[in-house]
Design goal:
The chain is an alpha+beta fold. The chain contains 13 helices and 15 strands.
Length: 561
């Protein structure tokens, strides 16, 4: 149960991380990109707005300067200011009437008044204009005289309106001698300036103000802050631009929270999108992963039953053609193979028991054979029958080699000796003569091989080869050598060979001519694999050649008795 749960958890975590991490990174990059674009757009908007307001304010200031040009070039005003100062109240009154008429004629959009150069000779006129109005200082007037064709911008607080007022002071000069005669003062109320400003509707706390060269506030939506030092507030985004040569600046300010507020909305929106996407993806992942892991879980549970001995096919609710379906198909094929193997094993065990019973029935005490053969040998020697005694001796050796405590292994040397014993018995029994040649690599005599692989082959040579030849013409050649990790036995005779039976050619790669060769081939193949066993050399002409391939095992420690 833990294995299946671990498989589900591992698959889910791995796939989830493979999807969720890139999705989270994509969401973060999207938010970061949106934030960057919003900040760029906001910064551009503020910059565009401050540039627009700069143009508006500069246009207002420029209009005042242009309007002042018409007044300072008035010949009538120059003549009036060039006239001698009044010596009596009546003369000053005449001056006041004339200057009032001229101002009324020359006045444009803005409030204006004129100050003669020698104001001390005009006390009543000075008292008349000094009520709520600004009176320029001597320093300002001298500065205006020095600027010649330009004027001086200044500001003051108007007590009557409780508002700041911008003033433009410019010298009136004689057209002939270009000497200063007085100054004109144009008054621009702060309300005029504020009307020219535009504010972005998307920002509620957007502020625009004007400061002078000393960073004192000239114009602000809160008039009570007039002439106070401008200090940028924390967490505010500010931008500024210069208005005129005197150092007046236009400043815009916006709280950072109004910029980040939209960014915060984008962040929250992105977060919600990512969270919802993760939830949907996780739900789909659970369904998909369970679709793969549940069949495996059921299969593992079924395998536990198989382990306990219940060999049944695994059945799925629906057939599948994917890898899981192939896995189930392979498992069911394995169950079928196991069932067949069990049946086959049971049959083999039954056959083995029957064989063992038959062996027990046919088994005779070897000592009884040896004692009987020794008695026959003794009687043959006593009767002076040397051939009979020799046959009995070799037969005893043959039986001893075959019955050697059911030991299946022997050495190359003893296997060859056993085959020679058999051939000697054949010679003695049949009174036929034939020649036997043995060529053996002495370095492999002690290597271990399976018993009784040569005797059936040489027996086949006698029956199907030598027996068909005239007396004394038969020859058997036994060659034993080592090729890499194999021991090669080559047995050949000079009999008629395969040419005497054309049907043998059809089975030239298989063992024929008797049950003994078939048994030897099967024993070697079962022990060491299909590449080992007996092979007929069909390329050999003028006889019959058999090649036996046996792997190198190990050197015999003791040998057979």
């Amino acid at each position: 149960m833990k294995i299946e749960d671990n498989l589900f958890n591992k698959m889910f975590v791995f796939i989830a991380l493979s999807i969720i991490i890139p999705l989270a990174m994509l969401g973060y990059l999207s938010y970061d990109r949106s934030k960057s674009q919003l900040e760029t757009v906001t910064s551009k908007l503020l910059q565009d707005n401050i540039e627009l307001n700069k143009k508006q304010v500069n246009r207002l200031l420029k209009d005042a300067e242009v309007e002042s040009e018409k007044m300072v070039t008035s010949i009538q005003l120059q003549k009036l200011l060039q006239s001698h100062p009044p010596r009596s109240y009546e003369e000053e009154k005449v001056f006041i009437d004339r200057i009032s008429q001229l101002i009324a004629q020359l006045k444009g959009t803005y409030g204006v008044y004129v100050l003669p150069k020698q104001m001390k000779y005009y006390p009543n006129y000075l008292e008349l204009i000094n009520g709520n109005d600004f009176k320029p200082s001597t320093e300002l007037m001298l500065k205006a005289f020095d600027l010649k064709e330009k004027g001086v911008w200044y500001h003051y607080w108007d007590e009557s309106s409780k508002k700041p007022v911008l003033t433009y002071i410019r010298a009136v000069r004689s057209s002939y001698y270009y000497e200063p005669l007085g100054v004109i003062v144009l008054k621009i109320p702060d309300s005029f300036v504020r009307e020219e400003l535009t504010f972005p509707s998307s920002f509620k706390n957007y502020k625009t103000l004007i400061v002078d060269q000393d960073n004192n506030i000239i114009s602000n939506e809160n008039s009570m802050l007039y002439n106070e030092k401008f200090v940028p507030e924390e967490d505010w985004n500010t931008a500024e631009t210069q208005l005129n040569k005197q150092g007046w600046k236009l400043i815009t300010a916006l709280p950072n929270k109004e910029i980040t507020g939209n960014i915060e909305q984008i962040k929250n929106f992105t977060l919600w999108i990512v969270m919802i996407s993760i939830f949907i993806i996780s739900t789909y992942l659970v369904i998909i992963v369970r679709n793969f892991t549940l069949p495996i879980k059921d299969l593992v549970s079924h395998m536990e039953k198989v382990r306990s001995g219940v060999l049944k096919h695994f059945k799925m609710e629906r057939s599948r053609k994917d890898e899981i379906g192939q896995l189930v198909g392979g498992f069911n094929q394995m169950i079928t193979g196991m069932s067949e193997l069990i049946v086959q094993t049971k049959k083999m065990e039954s056959d083995k028991r029957n064989f063992e019973l038959q062996t027990l029935h046919h088994q005779i005490n070897p000592h009884f054979f040896y004692n009987t053969l020794d008695a026959i040998k003794w009687r043959a020697e006593k009767a002076d029958e040397k051939n009979i005694a020799l046959m009995v001796t070799k037969l005893a050796n043959l039986l001893r080699f075959s019955l050697n405590n059911n030991n299946e292994w022997t050495t190359v040397e003893r296997e060859i000796e056993h085959a020679k014993n058999y051939l000697d018995i054949v010679k003695l029994r049949s009174n036929r003569s034939f020649k036997v040649f043995v060529q053996v690599d002495p370095t492999i005599l002690k290597l271990k091989v399976i018993k009784l692989i040569l005797q059936p082959i040489v027996e086949n040579c006698i029956k199907h080869g030598i027996s068909n030849l005239p007396e004394g013409k038969g020859k058997i050649l036994l060659t034993v050598k080592r090729i890499e990790q194999d021991i090669i036995f080559m047995i050949e005779d000079n009999g008629p060979g395969l040419d005497s039976n054309k049907s043998d050619k059809k089975n030239s790669n298989h063992v024929h001519h008797g049950i003994g060769l078939v048994n030897v081939h099967k024993r070697l193949s079962l022990h060491f694999g299909t590449e080992y066993g007996i092979k007929v050399d069909e390329e050999h002409h003028g006889g019959f050649r058999v090649i036996v391939r046996h792997p190198v095992h190990e050197e015999a420690k003791g040998g057979d008795t």
